[in-house]
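Thought: the user wants the 3D structure for the chain below. I'll pass the sequence to the structure tool as-is, report back what it returns, then summarize two notable features.
Action: structure_tool
Action Input:
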Amino acid sequence: MTASASGAVSSPSAVSSPGPVSGSDVELIRRLTHEYVSALDGGRLDDLVSLFTEDGVWDGTGWGIPAVQGSAALRGFFESTMSSNRGTCHLVLNHIIDVEGNSATGTAYFHAFGRRLDGSLQDSLGLYSDVFARTSRGWKFARRSVSGLLASPAAD
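Observation:
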């Protein structure tokens, strides 16, 4: 996000993705995770889906949300998610990434803020557990699993 002289802040959707980047595998994978939240928060559906392999999986079963697999299912899921919010802001941090050849695994914490269509606020803490694949188009998500953190204890 950038601020103008008047103090107005541009939305992430106004930020375009730069061209190809170079760097270590770990840095490229970390960048992929940042591109994910930028596309999600910016409402850039095509960019978001393109971050996954063709048979990629987004798995929210750790948060009670069914897993979806493949580009068409991912598109439908993310489109529905984006249309159910006025806006979101995800912060991703504390990455741990292990690379072995053309695959990698990693975790990262996230803190997500959002405003639902009814005006209520959402504040979530969670953990991404990822499997990455090196493709001819660079590193992609083969699987992104999401689980919540600091859930309220069940009522007795």
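Final Answer: Structure generated. Helices lie at 25-42, 45-49, 71-83. The first strand starts at residue 52 and ends at 62.
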